[in-house]
Records
---
Amino acid sequence: MNFRLAPPEMSRILADASPTILIFDATYQGHVDSFRKSLPGIKHFIAIGNGPDWALSFASLIDASNVENVNLPEPLDTDIAYLIYTSGTTGAPKGVMITHQAADAAARLIGATFQAGPQDRTLIVMPTFHVGGKNVENATRRAGGCVVLHERFDAGEVLRIVERERITVSLFAPTMIQSLLDHPDSASFDLSSLRAVVYSAAAMPPPLLRRALQRFGSVLLSQYGQTEGMGTVLPAQAHVPNGSAKELRRLNSVGHPLPECSVKVVGDDDEELPCDAPGELCLRGPFIMKGYWNKSAETVDALRGGWLHTGDIATIDEDGYVYLVDRKKDVIISGGENIYSREVENALLEHPDVVDAAVVGRPDTKWGEVVCAFVVLADGAVVQPSELLNHCRQLIGGYKVPKEAIVVAELPRLPTGKVAKTMLRARLRDG
């Protein structure tokens, strides 16, 4: 589970998933203690480290375990291996059911993109509550390589680990790559062991991509997908910063379909569109989710016709390269994290003096986007923006809290009554 969530968010996810065992780091015992009595379905709380007296000790359980005469059934390909939660368009978390077959297929095919082998030493700094880091980790393990786990991203420490551990493969969000390049001592580290640097989670700005290629060499490759399924790869050989017009344009793409994967773009009627026509990107392959946990209607809608409907608007050129155009859902991607506007808006609306709120992404050179809120207050109310931000911090994870809150008299709306977020984004661009 995402450890960056606020306790109320964690509690809602646990209530939905209905686990019987919860293993947690002792650092988070305050979080767990705040909601454990409201979740009677959890029979065992197990703490890693110096935990509270109401939890079992992970280390003691391991020391006391006896695996003799334990016969565990082999899982079926269709059994659920992971339940990874992601937010939906309404902000409500959805548990994505990933089967053993899908997890293995993702590991096998993603490993093939960087030719994973037993000689690899893969550094995982992306959180494993996201599928991206988990897939690259699994790809390395499947090939018999070594996985080096890093607790949190710190540019200087990552550079030191790459040099010391002779890391061959890693996965970064573009904002992490920027931090590595901007580190004052970056040039002094020996990064020659790197042979594959995978980037995902957000688009790579062309200037940053050129800097990364100059520093790391021709080892970058991009992967596109979401928790519900993987889709495309832009291989290292397609990263040609000084190539032809077509090669330069491909740097803005998310690549071509992975092996055994099919892609298409469709209109509102789900009919396939021709080359270069924008439509919803759909994926099909062996690594697509089984569905959403406890959400059958959403599952049927997302997987209708046997295709995963991603909610992303894209085009596909004549050579099969996919270009993301826009997001059908109101997703803000900040530092590689998906932030759903409705979730933030709901937190703002819980403030007693807020009567209306809308959240959009403001372009940012470092984070890609940052969260910006437009807020309408009740008549006569006087609330400082800082108070609104502090209010949000009590309800949602810190990375979702708006960077700024702008108080306005009213929100612009379309004839349908929906907030005209394009006008809000234009207002931000115009200052």
Note: Residues 100-113 form the longest helix (14 residues).
---
Amino acid sequence: MPDAPDPAGRPLLLVDVDGVISLFGFAAHAQPPGRWAVVDGIPHLLSPTAGAHLHRLAARFELVWCTGWEEKADAELPHHAGAPAGLPHLGFDRHAGRGMQGHWKLAAIDEHAGPDRALAWLDDAFTPACETWAVARRGPTLLVPTRPHEGLTDVHVAALERWADALRAAA
């Protein structure tokens, strides 16, 4: 069932973790700033600024975890990365709809957001199927690609804020 519109009129912001908050893909001699945390026995280098960025974005967006971490994102990231606590998460059946839509997250996003709700999506692994899906949605849709060794940056935050403000001004 699609998520009810936010009473404050905010668009959804779907937040991936790996490549957005948990950084990877950097050379050992070029490790970016961050804090190491172990989640389920796996070390993650967490962005030192992502938590604050998400708190800032929560003023304009309804944040939802959109990650294979599922409920672990809300259990771990407020403590380890300073992310907002109490955020909902999408659940994924990694086999349902994969062949039809071409990306393992799209069916869950459609189920949560419905076709009309405005949404932005932060992820490091968009595919051409994601671009096609975004263009075909009735509701305003913004895909915000990150680089996995940089994650969520000031530039992404500013672009998201401008987009949300433009939606609000057009309403």
Note: The chain is about 35% helix and 20% strand.
---
Amino acid sequence: MTTTLPPRISEQSLDQLFRQARTQNGWTSETVPDSLLREIYDLAKMGSTSANASPARFVFLTTPEAKERLRPSLAPMNVEKAMTAPVVVLVAHDLEFYEKLPKLLPHADMRSYFVGNDDLIEETAFRNSSLQGAYLILAARALGLDAGAMSGFNAGAVDAEFFPDGKTKVNFIVTLGHGDETKVFPRNPRLDFEEATTVL
């Protein structure tokens, strides 16, 4: 039986997703419509997660008022680039994600596997929401936006402001929009294949 592999995506697409894509530190004034946020999510949700658990929850801050709620939680170096971004995304994880497993994985009783197992819940939620946040960045790039992921914030303060019920925890933050190329730093080196990998 011969299996035909799908074709590689174009070199231009690889540049857009990886080689030429940059973490953005400044933004143009061009807005991002809500319809595009829906498109981004509808792509990102298709990325793989363990047991199809899909624990990520995304809060899109699109108004000045919403972004001001975030300001006190940000490290000083991140304030301007977050406040001026058209969209700031709180990538969070739902610690009760397993309640949706009967819908997401109907052929197996995975819910009972998680109930009461707090360590497994936290590990699974954090790991897979990290994956889903990365899928979100790639989806945004694929649809023509720039993105900037950031960690410099007080997670406890973000959770208190946006997730006060304690069932959802922020993982990291992503800014979205059209980047201002004049504010991009020179690209830093990456580790070579021989430095970062082992082939067994």
Note: Residues 118-142 form the longest helix (25 residues).
---
Amino acid sequence: MIAFGQGVQTDEQTLDPIREWAGWLYFFIIGLTLLLVVSHESYWIDEALMGVVARQSSLSSWWQTLVEIKAGELQSPFYSLYLWIFAQSFGSSEWALRAAGLIWLVPGLTVLVTGFHRCNQRVAALAAVITSPFVWYYAGEARPYAMYLGASCVVTGAILRLMRTDLPVRKQSLWLSAFLVGIIFLCGTCMLGVIWGGCALLVAFFLIPRERLFRMCKAAPGRVTLTVVILAVLGVYFMWTLRIGARSTSPGTTDWRSVAFVFYEQLGLLGLGPARTDLRTGGIQLLRPYAGILLTASVLIGFVLINGFLQMAKGKPAGRTIRIVFVVAAFALFLFTVGVTVRWRVLGRHCAGLMPGWIALLAVGLADYWRRPGLWGKTMAIAYIALTLWSCLSIRFASRHARDDYRDAAKCANLALENNQVVWWNAAEPGAQYYNVPLRTEATGKNAALLLINPQAQTLALLSRPNVIITSKPDLYDNDGTVAEYVRHGHYRSSQRFPAFTVWQE
């Protein structure tokens, strides 16, 4: 028995350097792939707000700006602070602030990929990660979701290791620390992370052998206590933000369509269909031209996920599998219920805590398909990777998926102002602030565009006729259609169009 135990330990020690070098290889592959995602494109609404906050000259002005806007950025304390620190060294350009998230996302994804014990599953997990349209989309945004997803992946990767029976005691202590740090950053990056942090704690309780879990926690009382204290402080902080009225901007409410869109976005269909802005305003009928490719991809992704679930459940106690499914479903249902109750639309990014689970299922499913004899399994794996990679490349390079072009809209506004024209700005204020469009909220004033957010018809009737009207996303900024009616009756013509923008001139 002793000799056998020593033999196993020697094998594990022999494999460690190989796995370490493989881990670095995965890290560089993931990093180089996601660097392709980072672009110089214009900031869209929420990114512009992050840019405005990040470029504040001092810590006090950063905090004051956060408190004044009372938006979701106040409820992303770790990321907002990190981005401000990052901007002090590397600037607040579009490329810089988007690349900032990779510092968290790439290591997190690497921890998740290397958490699988079998080599074929690690390779399949790598393939699932670098061809995930959801990962591509949010790796290219200056928003907290890269850090959010990275922390979720660290937590999941730690659980995958701690549930193994052959993990040495010294590594159990290391991965317990990684799990606790991941939970802290998951909750501190975004208030919604608290929900998925709670989910992860319950999943860990069911997956990690109970005796080992209690032994590890007993051996590390300081780390566990510190984690509890930090989470308690974060809880008090989030309660304060809610009390002063801070809230993320997600117009609409949660219904069956928004729930369906969560799966549509997370499972990789986004790049294969219409632009998400068009889909939001135009409805599901816009999916019809893309029905063939979307249906094919849905069936293929469904087969891979179901196969992954069956392989994971094989040989495992049925009760444990049911408990895990119930826990994840219960937390997701809670989030959707909150969305319905407070009339706030839950989107795929809000459920980023689910993504490591999807990636795990896809990895196990793809690995099983690939190792099967014959062509059927390999064909399924290759077809999945080809379709999801197509979706990724469409998100990055297809013009229909370009984000709101505040930069070019701002150039039009500033050019009109330089020519002493009257300009109305019917779009988000942070986009104008970041791209240096002077704004006014009063009817009188010179050398500044008039900011109009969901104005009333009687308000517009009292204003001087503008030479240029710049409009964007009427469901957000012209929900009664009064600006659209003014444009129509005023016989304005569309002079330029940018993603999510129309420039109207006399």
Note: The chain has two domains: 2-401, 406-505.
